[in-house]
């Protein structure tokens, strides 16, 4: 075989190797996404380096799959808008963010965030040089619910220079979009969890129980529950019972119960031994199980108070 033929064959083999290497990540993700492969790795008791590497790949792949599912069902899309106002900021150029959330089998009304670029003078954090004018993004308008802390997220990820003109941190639009989407999804998940509590308790409609102090209007649900209400951000939930007990619980953004207080709204003898025992028992049931908001009514009905 001639030298030219050998060189040609080596070049061909190198091309094949590069092609196979490019397919390796796809093969990893495909194999690790198979339930049978994942189950086998979890069951395996082997401590070999290859199995350890496979488990590490599996952990990363599962996290990636979860992230992709969130992006698929609760997407955020960027688009450009031209403001027709001749006096608009930045010649009317606007960057829009569209957040869509599924509601049952359909998508609900999307939320929009509009950002504009503003020119500011200041000192660059990295270069340490005075920059005459820089274009930085700021939130112009939005339709996000008031309970979602968009201003706090903007201060963190789209920070503008302080009084000294120096940037606290570099702006990160991608991080802002991810954090905003997560906050909106968490808010709707908490609203859905509170509504599920009302359904589980036999209370109909989102406004049920808002006149809980009016005895004529209170309708008894399961377990003696007459009202389940939440604050605007759906972080704090009050469960009111016909007996006068009120369980107030606070959940975090993920739906886990962080704090519970049980008090009496109607009973004047709130400090007697029986009342204290009932409050302790109700608190134990609310915080029992997996400690999540979704199962609160089921845990209460396991030994109903009311």
From TrEMBL:
The keyword Glycoprotein does not apply. Keywords: Centromere, Chromosome, Nucleus. It is found in: Chromosome, Centromere; Nucleus. GO terms for cellular component: Mis6-Sim4 complex; nucleus. InterPro entries: CENP-O (IPR018464). Its main location: nucleus. Coiled coil: none annotated. Belongs to the CENP-O/MCM21 family. This is Cenp-O kinetochore centromere component.
